Amino acid sequence: MSQNAATVALVNRLKFKHLALLVALDDARNLHQAADAVNVAQPSASRMLGDIEEAFGFLLFERNARGMTPTPLGVVTLAYARRALAELTRFAEDLDVKRKGGHGQLTVGAIMGAAPDLLAMAVATLKTERPLLNVRILGETSDQVVQLLHRREVDLALGRLTHPLQHNDFSFEPLARETLLLVVRTAHPLAQRTSITLRELIDWPWVAQPLTSPARVLFEEELARAGLATPVNLTECASIFATLQLLENYDAVAMLPESVVRDHVRGKLLVALPVEIGKSLAGFGILTRKEEPLAEPALHFIDLLRSVSHQLARDATVQPHAAATGDAVPLSAH
């Protein structure tokens, strides 16, 4: 069969249902779970996978006792399947919004440290200008938003690169830095201390982000510099909202962005401890996929993010505040 004939045969046989099954298999690495995810019976899923592999002319997965592992060519094929399915899903959602009288869709991944200031102000301006634009915001930590960007589930992201080689896949435009605070609830025995060291906090319960997040890596580096081990009594939590709820309900310590805890400190639900931490945390910024054009709403939103970042930087130089007193500390420019 000629190369052209093989291409035509593949196009004629490959369906979006096949792509959905491949993505489900990549996520679950288990045929039964993947079949449930795409709402087909397991025998049908098995036949579909056989048809797909026959159409491609090579195995996509190696079957073993522990599940299914993509072959080298399978990895390439799965990346295409995920990309094509994500683009079809976004196209269908965007079309539905426009059919109902809307003006398209924008999906943004964002770390929660950017949400109370930069993200909120930019989205507010965008929705004022374009009230019918459907805006979705996903993610909480940098590792989450980078993964969303990689899987093409968001158009762009606000966060940080989490691996040295990710610059090969993503463009990064720095926008701002976060001020990090160590916080406890108002009833915590240490809440009224005017002087305290990191060493004194180690034996208390802690709530920390997973090891895959830049903030957690920084926290561990701070401990290492101080010659301290990771707290034994530690709860890992990727959700900022859940972390705040945990802090308010028992005597735990957490390292969180000032912008996230600002209102809790002002409302005297939380207290910022007098410990300086997090100065070496890299600034966050705009993340986009390299060599992939953005739609007009995404480009306009990036312009708004830049504008808001500059505004916050100007405000920070005019009106600096002390976070420990409960006053707002605006983001400074990166």
TrEMBL record:
Coiled coil: none annotated. GO terms for cellular component: cytosol. One of its GO terms (molecular function) is DNA binding. The keyword RNA-binding does not apply. Residues 14-71 form the HTH lysR-type domain. It comes from the Bacteria. Pfam families: HTH_1 (PF00126), LysR_substrate (PF03466). PANTHER family: HTH-TYPE TRANSCRIPTIONAL REGULATOR YBHD (PTHR30419), NITROGEN ASSIMILATION TRANSCRIPTIONAL ACTIVATOR-RELATED (PTHR30419:SF8). Belongs to the LysR transcriptional regulatory family. This is Transcriptional regulator, LysR family. It comes from Paraburkholderia phenazinium.
